[in-house]
Each structure stands twice: as structure tokens, then as C-alpha cells.
Amino acid sequence: MTKKFTAWWLAGVVGLLIAAVVLLGLGLMGYTEAAAAPGKPPGPPKRPTPLPTALLGIRNRDTAISPTPLKSGIEMTYTFQLSVDTGSMDARNVVLNLPFVGNQKYLGFEATNPGWKVREGLTDRVLVDLNTLKAGDVGTITIRATFATNYDKTIFRQTVYLRWDDDFQSREVGVNLTAPVEEPPVAKPSPIPDPTLPPTIGPSGPFAGVADPGKPNSDSGWYFPATRHNLHGDFLAYWLSHGALTVLGFPLSEEFQDGGRTVQFFERAVMEFWPENPSSYRVLLRSLGREVGQLEAGVPSTGPAPLPGSVYYPETGHWLDGQFVETWQDRGGLAQFGFPIGEPVEIDGKLIQWTERARFELDLTHPDQIVLLGLVGTEAAQRRGQLP
Predict the structure, then answer these.
(1) Ranges 26-30, 224-228, 341-345: which has the least confidence
(2) Mean pLDDT confidence for 307-328
(3) Handedness of CA 269, 275, 276, 281 (dihedral sign)
(4) Whole-angstrom distance, CA of residue 282 vs CA of residue 367
(5) Which phi and psi (to 5°) does residue 99 adopt?
(6) C-alpha distances out from residue 151 to 103, 182, 209, Å
(7) Concatenated DSSP letters for 168-218?
(8) Is residue 116 a contact partner of residue 130, using CB atoms and an 8 Å limit?
(9) Measuring CA to CA, how many Å separate 217 from each of 181, 188, 214, 223, 238?
(10) How confident is the model at residue 232 (pLDDT cuts 50, 70, 90)?
């Protein structure tokens, strides 16, 4: 009995010791993990509370421009209903700034508040001083102008700016305006010379005008009364899909053979037909820039761009001026115009730059002018002596 009791007692003691050791180990492990565990990650930093401001804005931006669609040179009206939301603070030293686009011209100004005045002597924009607008104020400004005659897009885009001071800061916001533009009608045909009058120098050969075939325009052929020439087949398809009048201009000739190629002259380009090429490259534009010797030695690309947004082309070693890049990209890019072959130059207030197939032009005498393409096709025909 004594031996059995002693063995039982020893086994119990050993069991208790083992349990104690296990419990102690688990406790230490938990303590170690708790000590090693990182604290709760901090939340995102709180955003600073924006400063309150006078809530000044234009209510009728979608209908501010009238009449629509706009037409070249017509009288147009801007009507701005300005308001400061009730409950916000006053707006002080308020100025409305309307920059003109293209060759718009200012005609007049009216306002519901006699204290609002237009600054005199400005031709490229209209600045209106509105002094102070109090919370809850509403007023209307009407600005009359002529629409640009050199705007060549079907949607007119313009931004009007509001600038003011309030109790905490100075602010300026821009409000974008848009309006549709009516495409210009095809020019009237040139008068046919009276055969009884003395002859005058005029177009000859394929550049001489032809009679109207009397058929409606179709996918197979168009007739242009403005220059009295036809456009057919692959040349017509290319013309329609590559900018038409805006980029290529009216045809100046019929198709004819020149240097073993079928060609046709346009106001801003010369098309050539290459039947041996894949279908996408059968119509190519002649490299008129290289033809007239406008290729210049390249310039290094090191250092900053000459102007913000300018792009360097190592293929010819020239920068495309930043003011021409958007037009170059939007109207056909490399396939249409080729690489720049000279640096931009200013001549008689006009910035010009030659590419392989075109000449880009920008009138610097008036701000906000649009980029135009030079009449390089017309000039090429004149050099041949086939146009006056």
C-alpha cells in the first residue's frame, strides 16, 4: 500500500509540475507576442478644412452665347448672369475677363448695375470691373462682339474668367463656354470670261477650269464650282478623310500625268498616286517643303525646349514649335505633314514653320489666333507658270 501510494503521489506531483511549466510557457509566449505586436496603425491624415470663400459664379453658362449656330463674321452676344450665393461672404474687387478667340472684335456692353464698367483700349479681350458683389446679389452683363472670320472648327470653345477677393483669399475660376459653328458655304464659282473681251493671263492646261458636268456629287465624283474642277476616285476619298477644305483646300487642277505619276494640285497640297503601294499608301502628298529648298541643317536637342510644348524630331534634327504641335497632331501628324525641316521663324508679325509637306502659319499680331496652313499648292502651281 505504501509503495502504491508513494508512486501515485509522485505521479501527481510530476503532473502538476508539467502543467505548471506548460501554462508558464504559454503565458510567456503570449506576453512575447503581445510585446512584439505593433500598435494600431495610424489612420489617414486629416485633410485641412478648406477656407470659406465667396460663392461667385455664372448661372447660365450653357446658353450664354447667342445666336447659334455661329457664322463667320456675324454679330454675337454673350449674356452672363452673375450671382453670389446667399449665406456666403461678399466678393470684392471682382473682375470678369473674356479673352477673344481668333479675330473677334468688341462691339458694346450693357449691365444691370450702372457701376459695372468695361476697361477701354483693349482689343484682345474684354475686362469688366464689378467692384463688390454682396451675398445674395444677382446681376446680368451683356457683351456684343463679331464672331471670328478665321475660326475653322465646328464647335466654338471659349473660357471666361472670374477673379475676386474675399475675407480669406484671392480666387480665380474659369468657366468653359461652347457653341456650334455653321460650316461655311462653298464659295461662288468664278465668273466665266466673256469671249468678246481681250484675253487675259489665266490658268492653262489641266489647271484651266472645266464645265460643270451637271451631276450631283457622289462617292465617285465631286465638282467644285469655286475653282471649276472635278475630284474623283482615290483622290476624292483621301480628300474627304484627311481634312478636306481645312487641310487640303479646293482642287486647282484636274488629274494629269507629271513625272510618270498621276497627280492633282490643291490649294494646300499636291496629291500623287502610287498604285504599287499598299492601299493605305497609294495616295501620298508631294514633299513641297523639300521641293522648294526649305530643308535646313539640324540643330542639337540638348537643353530645354525652345518653347513649352515643343517636340524634337531627330529624323530631321528640328523642333516643331509648341504652338504648332496640337494642329500637327490633330490634323494628320506625320503621315499628313511629314517631319519639320526647319526651325520656326517670325516674318512680318507671322510665325511660320515648314514641314516636309506643309507650311504652318500663326498671326502673332493678334492674341488667340488659330493656326493656318499655307497655300503651298497654289504657290507650286504659280512657280510652274500654270496659275497667275
Answers:
(1) 26-30
(2) 90
(3) positive
(4) 40
(5) -70, 135
(6) 8, 11, 29
(7) S-EEEEEEEEEEEBPPPPPPPPPPPPPTTSPP-----GGGS---------B
(8) yes
(9) 24, 16, 9, 7, 16
(10) very high
- Report the DSSP beta bridge partners of residue 172: 163
Kindly write down the DSSP assignment for every residue of 256-284, as one continuous string. Answer: EEETTEEEEEETTEEEEE-TTS-GGGSEE
Beta bridge partners of 263: 256, 272
pLDDT at 147 over 50: yes
Picking from 201, 327, 231, 335, the residue whose alpha carbon sits closest to that of residue 280 is 335
Identify any residues that bridge with 355 across adjacent strands, giving them in sequence order.
340
**Whole-number Å distance between alpha carbons of 23 and 136:** 75
Residue 300: its H or E element: none
Q: Are strands 261-266 and 256-258 parallel, antiparallel or unpaired?
A: antiparallel
Tens-digit pLDDT profile for residues 26-65: 454 544 444 444 554 554 444 455 567 778 888 888 889 9
pLDDT of residue 19: 56
Residue 134 identity: K
All three cell numbers of 22, joined, read 506548460
Residue 171 grid cell: 480666387
Q: Does residue 269 contact residue 376 with C-beta atoms inside 8 Å?
A: yes
Share of the chain above pLDDT 90, in %: 41
What is the per-residue burial (b if ≥16 Cβ within 10 Å, else e) of 77-115? ebbbbbbbeeebbbbbebebbbebbbbbebeebebeeee
